[in-house]
Design a protein that fits this description.
Elements lengths: L10 E5 L28 H13 L4 E5 L9 H7 L8 E6 L14 H7 L4 E5 L5 H8 L4 H14 L3 E8 L8 H11 L2 E6 L17 H12 L3 E2 L10 E5 L4 E6 L13 E4 L4 E3 L8 E2 L1 H5 L4 H13 L17 H4 L2
Parallel strand pairs: 1-2, 1-10, 2-3, 3-4, 4-5, 5-6, 6-9
Antiparallel strand pairs: 7-8, 8-9, 10-11, 11-12
Helix pairs in contact: 1-9, 3-5
This protein binds S-adenosylmethionine (SAM) and iron/sulfur cluster.
Length: 333
Amino acid sequence: MEDQFGHRISYLRVSITDRCNERCNYCMPRELQEWLPREEILNYEETLRLIRIAADLGVTKIRVTGGEPLVRRDILNFIREIPKIPGITSLGISTNGTLLTHKTESGQTMASALRAAGVQSINISLDTLDRHLYAQITGRDFHQQALDGIEAAIAAGFEQIKINTVLMRGRNEDQLIPLIEFAASRNLILRFIEMMPVSTTEVLSDENFLPIAEAKRAIEKQFGALIPEQSFRTNGPATYYQVPGRNQRIGFIGAMTNLHFCESCNKLRLTCDGKLRPCLGSYLEFDIMKPLRAGASDHALRQFFLDVVDRKPEQHDFRNNYQPDRKMIAIGG
Ligand SMILES: C[S@@+](CC[C@H](N)C(=O)[O-])C[C@H]1O[C@@H](n2cnc3c(N)ncnc32)[C@H](O)[C@@H]1O
Ligand code: SF4
């Protein structure tokens, strides 16, 4: 699948739930969250059918996300089916990490069970090493669970573990160096992410937006000039650097300030309620659940995917004061 601007689509992010056990204030509104009713969520069979169709069209990489994907019941049986789909060569999951130590029926941790089910890479969100700040940001006192989850992921032997940190001025600026040390001591890839306007506007003001360039400067003050790593790509939008004098890779995801951000985009999103989104930062979404439930053939669904890809914008709309009407938690980050 290729769009009008030469983006070759090989990566599908699949959100399997809008629910979450945390309440990060950049991701969801503070008001009482109303979850989608069950019948409006794609069931696993429906989701797997759409992944199969995407794979037919050249998607090789799947990342399962949410909401918090690990709050959805029976996730392991779903995950196990994904690597069996012809064409899928890469399977990842994004999680807040808090449920990775949970014991599954087999007695393994959730982390080990995910690894055994075929997950190769895991992205875990961690914005701070400070318990109180963590509770402030996430609305939950689950810091220790998140840290234990990271250790469980390390023990489970994933091919790649990335820690994702959203940059927030006035909140976690002083956490950059401690997080780098934390990642270094565990040999994890750390990525700093610019906050995007996908939540309530009050959270995303000029006062709390911290651009990656500023974070990079603060890091370079401590460690010296970061060494760009042109050759290392994870199929994602991050730019990577080596921390000088040590064998450590860190990444920056600058959706807001990097003007070339969209050039190498290879991504499509499937929301948990069956909408295909060609771009996170655009209002465009297309309801594939409707034809799916109305009995559409594989051929028709393939055509649906191609039509969506054809409408993929050249770049996102965030810089034009775009305020989407859906929260990140509902789109699937
Ligand atoms: C929506 S979450 C879903 C998966 C999982 N619950 C988690 O927290 O990793 C995926 C990622 O999106 C990030 N995210 C959420 N809202 C964001 C925002 N407004 N700007 C930038 N990143 C955001 C989170 O920090 C997380 O790393
Ligand atoms: S970022 Fe992840 S953990 Fe935080 S509220 Fe959103 S879905 Fe939940």
